[in-house]
Amino acid sequence: MATQRIELGLTASTPSGEGCGDGCGCGHAAAAAAPTPSASEGLSDSELRVEGMTCAHCVRAVTEELDALDGVEVAGIDLNVGGVSIVRIRSNGTAGDDELAAAIDEAGYALVR
Which of 30, 34, 38, 73 pairs as cysteine with 21 (C-beta 3.0–4.6 A)? Predict the structure, then answer.
């Protein structure tokens, strides 16, 4: 399976019907690979394992939910199509683990505990 790293701190508006380019058929354009968030003072890192993510649309759904949380500065993801993806979150500590897990659940994906 291919692994792709995608920065979750930014979202892009894409016309529907383009597809991810990997044949998933979701109707969204593929996101460009980006580096993992860099270190900053006063921020903490969380790492969550998530099942069910298969494309850029999946990444975008998780991004939107995480971005809506107070304190989330940046999130990065190692997308493992069809497997367990790693979501790395840098925050100021305001968003707790339960809130992060609820955001991922709200996006429609399963947190692996």
Answer: 30
Query: Given this model, what pLDDT does residue 40 score?
Result: 54
Q: Which amino acid belongs to residue 3?
A: T
- What are the tens digits of pLDDT across the range 12-54? 333 444 445 555 555 544 444 443 445 556 788 889 999 999 9
> Residue 77: is it exposed, middle or buried by C-beta count within 10 angstroms (0-12/13-18/19+)?
buried
- Whole-model pTM: value is 0.62
How far apart CA 40 and CA 14 sit, in angstroms, is 31
Question: What DSSP element (H or E) covers 100?
Answer: helix 97-106
Sorted by sequence, the CB contacts under 8 Å of residue 26 that are 6+ apart come out as: 19, 20, 55, 57, 58
